[in-house]
Amino acid sequence: MNGCALGVRVQWGGEDLVHAACPSVPGGSGFLLAEEIHAEVCYAECLLQRAALTFLQIIKASPHRPAKGRIREEKPLSQGHLISGWQSWDLNAGQFGICAPHHTVVIPGTITSWFHLQAWLIIYSHHDENMVSFIKGGIKVRNSYQTYKELDNLVQSSQYCKGENHRHFEGGVKLGVGAFNLTLSMLPTRILRLLEFVGFSGNKDYGLLQLEEGASGHSFRAVLCVLLLLCYHTFLTFVLGTGHVNVEEAEKLLQPYLKRYPKGAIFLFFAGRIEAIKGNVDTAIRRFEECCEAQQHWKQFHHMCYWELMWCFTYKGQWKMAYFYADLLSKENSWSKATYIYMKAAYLSMFGKEDYKPFGDDEVELFRAVPALKLKIAGKSLPTEKFAIRKSRRYLSPKPVSLPIPALEMMYIWNGYAVIGKQPELTDRILGIITKAEEMLEKGPENEYSVDDECLVKLLKGLCLKYLGRVQEAEENFRSISSNEKKIKYDHYLIPNALLELALLFMEQGRNEEAVKLLETAKQNYKNYSMESRTHFRIQAAVLQAKSSLENGTRSTGSVSL
Question: Which residues are CB-contacts of 331 (< 8 A; sequence separation ≥ 6)?
């Protein structure tokens, strides 16, 4: 991708153009042409995506300056003017780039705001549990948010006049406005109230509409609108929602691009995600393998596929293959060493006594190594790492008490039961593993972790029973966790999550009022537990779904996911 963009840059003049555009870079004066600006932006965007995949803070865009310096910092909008590193445009004078001389079609403010938004979305995907740093990051990009609001108002105003390339400007505005609105609308209520206090607001329907219009257009940003919508449908609504995904819409967005680029790695990856969500695990595995074969330039993209393949084999209960991909990630990728090592240990602990353990690895030693691998990205801790470290602490004892089913517990954290729930055969297989673990706990001696482990098994067993249609048994398992609330010593996250799962069960039965009460209890009565933010996202999604069903007087069907 960056090779292609670099070719575009060379075609339009390469580094000399940068000298002409940026006063901070010596070697020229003047302004870029529209096509030249787009070439620079395309290259800078590729560098940003590459940096996001590698989590490097600085990827050099040229011998003169880092990538983040390619687009200069803009000043806030005030008194109807947008000030940028290149030029000032009067919002009220019809010279907003669209009708400006020399066919200048790209507005610097749009470009700068988009880069700020992407940086915020990267932070958003790795926020720490208390959200404080995320809110601080949000305040820093408030200027970009306000810029997009001004640009959106401009497009809607009577003073807006269209030039020959207006669709590219409008596409950029729709992308930014849609991304901001969609992101903000998904936040838990308690966080959204704080952000609204400093000037943010988000409307999910409007955000989706803007992105859909941008995706259906013919601008440079159309494909970015498509990718953002695919991320929303296949990741955000799945992992941070109730597990119900608008698969039809995702397939509708993907198919034209997959048909046009059948070997496109990005589109093959999303095709794999869609198949996994549908429960077609074998087809998903083939798609991810095709994605790895499609390109060799960005190894980090392979790692995204390895992560998905690891979970696909987890759904199938094939621990050796899941271990294989966790091992590959731990050796080749640095995104989260603690998580990868934890997953290696988790899969080893799922092996039978007669199974050969590869590479001479020992799960106890691997679990003990996890705390020392803790990572912070941009000063923020990864919630999954925090969870893995907390679970690994019991192995620091000279005589550790083993975790009962750590791989299946982490599968719950990533909402994997919503995948196996679509295939009774997979659900039955996992239920059998959970039942054996339950029997071993009953036969084994009591220890300080006994109640915690028993409640964990009840939670996961309840999920499998729900998807198999054994509703009464599922409810009994979920309720048993709440009845043992005061006995739980360490895994306090089990209680609000049991209430959440019980509420989702009630929603499927049309008992939405009872579900809302349980969700409010889970949200208000429990604090400072593992994966709290992720649980709050899921609670928020469930509340919206239940209230929508109450307003429509219908049983919850999962049509509203976030």
Answer: none
